[in-house]
Write a structure and sequence with these properties.
single chain, 64 residues, mainly beta, Ubiquitin-like (UB roll), five-stranded mixed beta sheet, 1 helix, 11% helix
Amino acid sequence: MVIVNGVGLDIAGKTLQEYLESAGYNFKQIAVERNGSVVFKSLYATTILCDNDTIEIVCFVGGG
């Protein structure tokens, strides 16, 4: 079980990129933290999600 923004998901074994694409995230508008450390976009395809990982995804929003 992987915790993504406070919700438990059965996505262990997937890459971070696979999860983000399946969830519809725009890579240009997000920042991702895994277990307290920022994950660089260049590492999304090789970062394998593991049981007990905690993922926080922050979406950037424009406005005035």
